[in-house]
C-alpha cells in the first residue's frame, strides 16, 4: 500500500470566491471561516467571497485567507475517512500543514500568518524588491549566476525550487532584473518577472523573520501527530522547538519544494492530496514525478467527485 501526503498551497493560489460552496453547504467547513473572522476582528470571509481581488492579493489578507480555505477543505475532506502519513505546505501552506498535524491551533495560526504577512509587506520598502520565475535553468548554474550578481552588489537568491525547470529568484530590483537579462547564461529559456509586493524568501526578509520570531515564541505548539516536511530542509519535523526555528528561517530561505516531494516519494508516498484553493501544487508534483497520483480538493464539486471515485473503487 502506498502512502498518502496532504499538501497545502501558498500565496498565488488565492481567488475571489474560493471555498464559498463549502461555506454554504458544509457546516463544519463554514465554522472555520466564522472562527477566522472572530480571531481577526473583521470579516475575512466577506473579503474571500466578494473581493475585491486587489484587496485579497495584499499579503496580510492573502495568507489568512488561504490558510482558512485550506483548513475548511481539510475539514470537509475528513468525511472521506483518509488520514495522511505526511503533510507539507508550500511557503505559507506550511502553516496549514502544521494545523493539519495538530501542531498549531487554528486561531493561533490565522493570527500568526496575518502578522507574518504584515511583517513581510513592511520588511522592504515598495519597489525595492522583486521576484522572477526562471524557466529551464539548472539549479546549480542558476545559483552560481545569482551568487555572481549578488557579489557585484545587487542581492538576488533562489527563493522557490518548485520543480525541474521552474525556479523562482528573489532579491533587489536590480539583482532580479540582472537575472532576467542574463538567465540564458544559466541555461534558462526565459525568466518572467512576478507581480509580488516584496522579495520573499530572500535574505532581504531578515527583518520580517526577527519580528515573526517574537510572535512565534509566544504561540503554543504541540508535537506533530504526523510528520511535517519542512520547506527549509525538505525533511520531517515533529518537535515544536525545531518547528519554531524553521518557520523563522523559512521567511528568508528558499522553499525546497522539489526536494520535499522527492523526499516524500522516497518514503513511499504515491498519492498527494492538495487541500485548498487551486491546483498549482498538483501541477508541480506531476512535473516532479508523473507516475504519482494527485488530487486537488478545493471545492464541493471536487470533493464530491473524489468521494464518488472512492465509493466506486470500494464497490469494485
Automatic annotation (TrEMBL):
ATP-binding is among the record's keywords: no
Entry-linked SUPFAM superfamilies: FabD/lysophospholipase-like, Probable ACP-binding domain of malonyl-CoA ACP transacylase
Domain Malonyl-CoA:ACP transacylase (MAT): 7-302
Pfam families referenced in this protein's UniProt entry, alphabetically: Acyl_transf_1 (PF00698)
Top-level taxon of the source organism: Bacteria
Catalyzed reactions: holo-[ACP] + malonyl-CoA = malonyl-[ACP] + CoA
EC assignment: 2.3.1.39
Enzyme class: transferase
NCBIfam families referenced in this protein's UniProt entry, alphabetically: fabD
Family assignment from sequence similarity: Belongs to the fabD family.
Name of the protein in its database record: Malonyl CoA-acyl carrier protein transacylase
Organism of derivation: Paenibacillus marchantiophytorum
Amino acid at each position: 500500500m502506498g502512502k498518502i501526503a496532504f499538501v497545502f498551497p501558498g500565496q498565488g493560489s488565492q481567488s475571489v470566491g474560493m471555498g464559498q460552496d463549502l461555506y454554504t453547504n458544509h457546516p463544519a467547513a463554514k465554522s472555520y471561516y466564522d472562527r477566522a473572522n472572530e480571531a481577526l476582528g473583521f470579516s475575512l470571509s466577506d473579503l474571500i467571497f466578494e473581493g475585491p481581488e486587489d484587496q485579497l492579493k495584499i499579503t496580510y489578507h492573502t495568507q489568512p485567507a488561504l490558510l482558512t480555505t485550506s483548513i475548511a477543505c481539510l475539514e470537509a475532506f475528513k468525511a472521506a475517512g483518509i488520514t495522511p502519513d505526511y503533510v507539507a505546505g508550500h511557503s505559507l501552506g506550511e502553516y496549514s500543514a502544521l494545523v493539519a498535524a495538530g501542531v498549531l491551533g487554528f486561531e493561533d495560526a490565522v493570527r500568526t500568518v496575518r502578522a507574518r504577512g504584515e511583517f513581510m509587506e513592511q520588511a522592504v520598502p515598495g519597489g525595492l524588491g522583486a521576484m522572477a520565475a526562471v524557466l529551464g535553468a539548472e539549479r546549480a548554474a542558476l545559483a552560481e549566476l545569482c551568487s555572481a550578481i549578488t557579489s557585484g552588489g545587487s542581492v538576488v537568491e533562489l527563493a522557490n525550487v518548485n520543480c525541474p525547470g521552474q525556479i523562482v529568484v528573489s532579491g533587489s530590483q536590480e539583482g532580479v532584473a540582472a537575472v532576467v537579462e542574463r538567465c540564458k547564461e544559466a541555461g534558462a529559456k526565459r525568466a518572467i518577472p512576478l507581480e509580488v509586493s516584496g522579495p520573499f524568501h530572500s535574505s532581504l526578509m531578515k527583518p520580517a523573520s526577527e519580528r515573526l520570531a517574537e510572535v512565534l515564541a509566544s504561540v503554543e505548539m504541540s508535537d506533530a501527530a504526523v510528520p511535517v516536511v519542512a520547506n527549509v530542509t525538505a525533511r520531517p519535523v515533529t518537535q515544536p522547538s525545531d518547528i519554531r526555528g524553521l518557520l523563522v528561517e523559512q521567511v528568508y530561505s528558499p522553499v525546497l519544494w522539489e526536494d520535499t516531494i522527492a523526499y516524500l516519494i522516497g518514503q513511499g508516498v504515491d498519492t498527494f492530496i492538495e487541500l485548498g484553493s487551486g491546483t498549482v501544487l498538483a501541477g508541480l508534483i506531476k512535473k516532479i514525478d508523473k507516475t504519482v497520483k494527485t488530487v486537488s480538493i478545493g471545492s464541493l464539486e471536487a470533493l464530491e467527485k473524489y468521494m464518488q471515485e472512492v465509493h466506486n473503487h470500494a464497490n469494485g
